[in-house]
Design brief:
Keywords: Dioxygenase, Iron, Metal-binding, Oxidoreductase. By secondary structure, the protein is of the alpha+beta class. Helices cover about 25% and strands about 30% of the residues. The strands form 4 sheets. Strands 1-2-3-14-6-16-5-4 form an 8-stranded mixed beta sheet, with helices on one face.
Length: about 280
């Protein structure tokens, strides 16, 4: 038995394809360690031909840590930790913006595992961007300015009221989520708790303002940073096939799910692994 994984980098800054694993089966310790090391280096990993059910996906995700239960998205019947992203004409996508998952909580997710279940005939690609590469490309004076700032992250920026009023039950679930997730602050620059690498940690999906700056300065600086991280050289783009799996480090990346496939349907299952409180260490 060959215990060494095949790792093919997809770009100079982010992304690698992994072969030699069957994720529906329990990982050996050696394979888990190789996968984890690759994730720290490449930030997002892709594996083809990986049929997996919700219970198996939950077991895989649990190898990395405890799982988050999303306050709004529906979940798989077999495992409440697996959210179901089922988008079509009657339920249009709401994740076609650049975002880091669930930064509106005190300990945002460390990792996420996304499985492709049903895909449109074309379109529906996902892009990931490296916050590490984006930060490294900024000038030293701007890096110095950002190192002293915190940013506010707001649940309602990506989950506004008008998108969650289809029924009284949905509206009440949204109101409870808002009450349980007030806006909070994270450092604009984040130190990875394992690798020590530094990354830009603001995202258009949830970052609402820089509280220590006047409103116009905050808006201008965040607008620049949101545009900056979208530069193609910091990105990898994945064209999904059914049963593909992506695993990414949510602490140092953000992603964008293309919504170019309607009226076709796209169904994805996601497991979200809880992380720790973001910090910045010079």
């Amino acid at each position: 038995m060959n215990d060494k994984l095949t790792i093919t980098p997809l770009g100079p800054h982010i992304g690698a394809e992994i072969a030699g694993l069957t994720l529906a089966e329990p990982l050996t310790q050696e394979h888990f360690e190789q996968l984890h090391r690759a994730l720290l280096k490449y930030q997002v990993l892709f594996l083809r031909d990986q049929p997996i059910n919700p219970r198996q996906q939950r077991a895989l995700a649990n190898r990395f840590g405890d799982l988050h239960i999303h306050p709004v998205y529906p979940h798989a019947e077999e495992a409440e930790e697996i959210i179901v992203l089922d988008t079509h004409d009657d339920n249009p996508p709401d994740n076609d913006n650049w975002h880091t998952d669930v930064t509106f909580i005190e300990t945002p997710p460390a990792l996420a595992i996304l499985a492709a279940k049903q895909l449109p005939p074309s379109g529906g690609d996902t892009l990931w961007a490296s916050g590490i590469a984006a930060l490294a490309a900024l000038s030293p004076p701007l890096q110095k300015l950002l190192a002293g700032l915190e940013a506010e992250h707001d649940f309602t920026k990506s989950f506004p009221a008008h998108r969650h009023n289809g029924s009284e039950e949905e509206r009440q679930r949204w109101q409870a989520a808002v009450a349980n997730n007030p806006p909070l602050r994270h450092p604009v620059l984040r130190t990875h708790p394992v690798s020590g690498r530094q990354a830009l940690f603001v995202n258009e999906g949830f970052t609402s303002r820089l509280p220590s700056l006047p409103a116009r300065e905050s808006e201008a600086l965040l607008g620049f940073l949101f545009d900056h991280i979208r530069r193609p050289e910091f990105q990898v783009r994945w064209r999904w096939q059914e049963n593909d799996i992506a695993i990414w480090d949510n602490r140092v990346t953000q992603h964008y799910a293309n919504a170019d496939y309607l009226p076709a349907r796209r169904v994805m299952h996601r497991a979200t692994i809880l992380g720790d409180k973001p910090f910045w260490r010079p």
